[in-house]
Design a protein that fits this description.
- This protein is of the alpha/beta class.
- It folds into three domains: 281 residues, 3-Layer(aba) Sandwich (Rossmann fold), CATH 3.40.50.620; 126 residues, Anticodon-binding domain of a subclass of class I aminoacyl-tRNA synthetases (Four Helix Bundle (Hemerythrin (Met), subunit A)); 48 residues.
- Helix content is 47%, strand content 14%.
- It has a four-stranded parallel sheet with strand order 4-3-9-10, with helices on both faces.
- Helix 1 links the parallel strand 3 and strand 4.
- Bound molecules: zinc ion.
- The site of zinc ion has 4 residues, from helix 7.
Length: 485
Amino acid sequence: MLKVYNTLSKLKETFKPIKPKAVSLYVCGVTVYDYCHIGHARVYLAFDVMVRFLRFSGFEVTYIRNITDIDDKIIKRAQERNISIQVLTEEFIQAMQQDFRALNIADPTFEPRATDYIPQMIDIIQKLLDKGYAYQGDNGDIYYDVQRYKNYGCLSHRNLAAQEAGARIEVNESKRNPLDFVLWKVAKPEEPSWAAPWGYGRPGWHIECSAMALQELGETLDIHGGGPDLKFPHHENERAQSEAANGKTFVNYWMHVGYVQQDKEKMSKSLGNFLTIRDFLKEYDAEVLRYFAIGSHYRSPVDYSLEHLTIANKAVERLYGALRSVEEMKEMAKAVKTQTKVLQIADLQFEERFKTAMADDFNTPEAIAVLFDLVRIINTLREDTSLEFQSISIENFERAIQLGFVLKKLGNLLGLLEKSPQEFFQNLRGKAIDSQKIEKLIEARNEARKIKDWAKSDKIRDELLAAGISLEDTTAGTRWHIIDN
Ligand SMILES: [Zn+2]
């Protein structure tokens, strides 16, 4: 039985899909005007892991993740770069897809683009006008009248009276109420526009998701999710539009991922302190970012810091280290020509614990704890298997191989351990090279050479070599470089 936390009720609820064994999932996608950052990675990695687990649990998941390809920021950026919005958005759609694939985020079932749904948006706006939920302001823009929708504010649990005076709400004389939001903006000469019954213009941001969700998944969705800052106003507004237009519950379960904080401030592009996914991948393995994202529960905020990345890096190394130990033990078994039965069967004890954790509102930290229990047992078996392994009971090999199989299977369900240990460690060598540490070791080696302690100097050289660093002694001193594989 799967339980999910619903932002609307603020409770963990038993998940009951509309159709048995099927899940309709809509996650608000990226506004494509720049490279995706760590905050995006966290949101889409969180939903990636949920989708993997839902599918593993036998649900047929229809996962819609839209692309916002028209918006104020896009128009502004295209003008700054003196290119069309099509050229700009195409560039960043491709970059986003590249980045997400590099992170091993599975493609959504369908990735609709907002500008392909203008007629559907116009239909919904017309319905809202007909039903009296929308009105045209003096400036010609169409607004949603939030006072007509009695549940406005319920999703984000906001005190709207306090909100009205808030600085984030744009005050506009054409609105009846400061909280009213725009559904359709009258065309401006320098902006793209489409024909509508109320004249040329372009849609407001929120209406696009109501239109795409309705078209692709129907009036009621099982799950609607997104980043933390979408609760208000975006999801509140989507809900108001869809429920008023269709007269049906829009979403059964609302799910929101926690913030990525940097120096305790939320990370978003507007703060200008972001780090892109592609910058990250120059330094670290993709699975380190995945581990960073899912090492905490998806609803908790996480601090993006060097300390946390180092922890994530070490953790992933430890997971792969255990897989490497299993491979070593396989080789040892071969060396003594022992016929090991390759037990590619699930160890139910671990798998059940893993499933119980994930079924509890996708508790990835608990699920990861199961992986580390496996790592500990494998490491102990490996340590017990010394050079005199002939004397070691055959069960040790078999048990390690079996646990290695379970570790990889459960890791894969989280999108971890997708590489071979060889590939991972080789990749690691080229990245995250700690040059300060290398310089220090070279210094220590030079000291050893001065006092003719060749054993020590050779030891340091070998150590560096094992880490993929080769040394060259020149008259100008010792140079180092990374060995190309
Ligand atoms: Zn949306």
